[in-house]
From TrEMBL:
Coiled coil: none
Name by which UniProt lists this protein: MATE family efflux transporter
Location in the cell: Cell inner membrane
InterPro entries associated with the record: MATE_fam, MdtK-like, Membrane_Transporter-Flippase
Keyword annotations: Cell membrane, Membrane, Transmembrane, Transmembrane helix, Transport
Transmembrane segments: 64-87, 99-121, 141-161, 173-194, 200-225, 246-273, 293-312, 324-349, 374-391, 398-416, 428-448
Topology of this chain in the membrane: Multi-pass membrane protein
Signal peptide start and end residues: none
Length: 488
């Protein structure tokens, strides 16, 4: 498209075949997830193999902090996706732009505050985590640069989630590909130095991330403005950067419960590995490697769950409730197909896959294979839960998924693993996974069928300067909405 021509070709998630649209939307989201995991793995290889165990321990501790900080804003990013999706679905593009303006200001302010606090108190944070003494100097150097990069990371995540809410998952994928490629290429150059570039050690790995994400973000924003993207704020709309109270309230009150879901998952994982540690290093090694493979097995479900949120939100905004139900069924079907295929491959080739990380005939290998045999199939059911949660949160129903995850992980899985360990040993831990997953999918299905999520709302008040919107417009009504409709 020529740079001077406005981009009015908005991705349409409200019309057309649901299965094909959902698949084409989900694949770039899945690709982005894979790229992020690949990037982390490659960076760990450089640090672990060439800078030593202390440096790798430092990055591991720093990445736990980063995961927590990104998890906190994940929910608010998802709330942005849903608000933008509902507005675009109802063809209320002015509201979508107001969400972008409020979200941009909020993310910028929040990220600067968190970055400044983290940079100043980096040694105290690492000390509170009981980071090993030999890793502390490495961790301080690495983490302080990560905190400098945090505003870029937050805003990068915000822009990608906003675009997905608008129906575009391809643009975030291509710029994620650029970012990961740059990060992987810059890591050895900045760690070891080359020509005029000094050797920076572990700080070089963090700096590579800062440079890669900053450049990718700058190019993505430039690309959106050159295309005159419909969500890019023009000069006359810069007043939208002044936070709208109704939109800001929705981002926080709806986003925090979704962010807490990540906290429930990550905190239960920390408790679980502490239970496994009690059975010795071979058991922990087997569990750790099995968990590495589970990360990839879960990716299709997470991608489909995020995609059905964007797609369902647009259809909720358009009042197309018949399509919302079909999106849920289609998403569950894709989960069975994609996650089921990965689980089947894991059962068929688990020895080869685990052999990438473990000695082929060691005790840890036998432990990992045994764990996989018990746990792997349950991730298909986990995928059903994630897809249904993706649909229900598209309306603004965010508390029920949080409650379901808390029940299944903290009231079922962990007590089962801990209380029965005295009788069944580590077997209680492994069987707690499918038990917790089974409980979560039953509760998710019950809430989807009988819960009040269809009556939920993202906005409890009308944004400043906009007329009240019932969110129940028909497609015909939507096509006649305002000057910001198609072709404006």
């Amino acid at each position: 498209m020529p740079p001077g021509k406005p981009d009015n070709s908005r991705p349409d998630l409200v019309n057309g075949p649901i299965a094909r649209t959902l698949l084409l939307f989900s694949l770039p989201v899945l690709g982005s997830n894979v790229l992020q995991s690949l990037n982390a793995s490659v960076n760990a290889i450089w640090v672990g193999h060439y800078l030593g165990e202390a440096a790798l321990t430092a990055t591991s501790n720093a990445n736990i902090i980063l995961f927590f900080l990104l998890g906190v804003v994940f929910g608010i990013s998802m709330a942005t996706t849903i608000l933008v999706g509902q507005a675009v679905g109802s063809r209320n593009i002015e509201r979508a732009r107001r969400v972008v303006g409020t979200g941009a200001s909020f993310f910028a302010a929040l990220s600067v505050l968190v970055a400044a606090f983290g940079y100043m108190f980096t040694p105290h944070i690492l000390s509170a985590m009981h980071t090993p003494a030999d890793a502390i100097p490495f961790a301080i150097s690495y983490l302080r640069i990560i905190f400098i990069a945090l505003p870029v990371m937050y805003f990068y995540n915000f822009v990608m989630m906003t675009l997905r809410g608008g129906g575009d998952s391809r643009t975030p994928f291509f710029f994620m590909l650029l970012s990961v490629g740059l990060d992987i290429a810059l890591n050895p150059l900045l760690i070891f130095g080359l020509g005029p570039l000094p050797a920076m050690g572990i700080a070089g790995s963090a700096l590579a991330t800062l440079i890669a994400q900053s450049l990718s973000l700058l190019l993505m924003i430039t690309y959106l403005y050159r295309r005159k993207h419909f969500l890019a704020l023009r000069s006359k709309e810069l007043n939208y950067l002044r936070p709208d109270p109704a939109i800001l309230r929705a981002l926080v009150t709806k986003g925090l419960p979704m962010g807490l879901q990540m906290l429930v998952i990550s905190s239960s994982a920390l408790v679980m590995i502490s239970l496994v540690n009690g059975y010795g290093s071979q058991m922990t090694a087997g569990y750790g490697v099995a968990s590495q493979l589970w990360t990839y097995v879960q990716m299709p479900a997470l991608a489909i769950g995020a995609s059905v949120s964007s797609m369902a939100a647009q259809n909720v905004g358009a009042g197309r409730w018949d399509r919302v139900s079909r999106i849920a069924v289609t998403g569950v079907g894709f989960n069975f197909l994609l996650t089921g295929a990965l689980v089947a491959l894991l059962y068929l080739f688990d020895h080869a896959a685990l052999g990438l990380f473990l000695p082929r005939e060691g005790e840890a290998m036998q432990v990992a294979q045994h764990i996989n045999n018990i746990v792997a199939w349950s991730f298909v059911l986990f995928g059903v839960t994630m897809v249904l949660f993706g649909v229900v949160r598209s309306t603004g129903a965010v508390m029920a998924p949080l409650v379901v995850l808390f029940i299944s992980m903290w009231l079922i899985r962990l007590p089962f693993a801990e209380l029965l360990a005295s009788r069944y040993g580590a077997e209680a831990i492994w069987w707690s996974f499918p038990l917790g997953t089974l409980v979560s999918v039953i509760l998710a299905l019950a809430y989807y069928r009988y819960g009040g999520w269809r009556k939920a709302h993202m906005l409890t008040a009308t944004p400043r300067g906009l007329a009240a919107d019932t969110g129940m417009a028909t497609p015909a009504m939507s096509s006649m909405a305002g000057k910001d409709g198609p072709g404006s």
